[in-house]
Amino acid sequence: MPETMRDTRVVQTFAKLADTLVVGYDVVDLLQVLVDSCRDLLDTDAAGILLADATGELELVASTSEATRIVEMMQLGAEAGPCIECYRSGRAVTMPDISASPAGWARFRDAALEQGFASMTAIPLRLRETTIGTLNLLRAGLGELGPDDHATAQAFADVATIGIVHERALRESLVVQEQLQGALNSRIVIEQAKGVVSYTNQVDMDEAFRMIRHRSKASQTPITEIARQIVELRLQL
């Protein structure tokens, strides 16, 4: 991608993320824009986001592929891996060679290598001292994310975090918890809808999600509402 075009799309992404400061935005749409933008604009092949629920447990909320989802679910199940370390420390964690992961990260390592990923960077979603989740970037090749791409990814994550837990939400912890729990609940409905579309159309889960997003964009309806209609059998794709 030419540098000028890339810069333009980065600016457009920031504008889209900044729109979340307006009342009525859809958190899941916001986070999907974030991971898709990282995949398309940065030197990374896949991306995903983990958010903490009201009890502090991480859950997968957005991903660019089923492969990403598998890798992150393995980390959650084992409670070990770059994402977990990033969330607990509030600092970015880089794995330039996943095959050289610590012994305690074996489940993450095996899942990542099996899905074709060789390196990874986990970036905290953090506002001041509050870390609410992680942005996780996976690459097929070895090595670290370049400094410019790393800075851009962190900036994307920072703007998204502000959109989720802005100043008013920070003053009311209950509001923060409700917003995050709402995003997690929405993702459950989306996963159910993916299963329905996959089954009825005989397509894989990635294609099912693309179909749901296409209907969401075409009808200018939040993706969570499209998913709910599918699960409730009020809409068929």
TrEMBL record:
Keywords: Kinase, Transcription, Transcription regulation, Transferase
Taxonomic lineage: Bacteria, Bacillati, Actinomycetota, Actinomycetes, Micrococcales
Source organism (scientific name): Agromyces agglutinans
Key word Cytoplasm present: no
Domain ANTAR residue range list: 170-231
Protein name: ANTAR domain-containing protein
Gene3D superfamilies membership: 3.30.450.40, Winged helix-like DNA-binding domain superfamily/Winged helix DNA-binding domain (1.10.10.10)
Keyword Kinase: yes
GO molecular function, one term: RNA binding
PROSITE patterns, per database record: ANTAR
InterPro entries on file: ANTAR, CheY-like_superfamily, GAF, GAF-like_dom_sf, GAF_ANTAR, WH-like_DNA-bd_sf
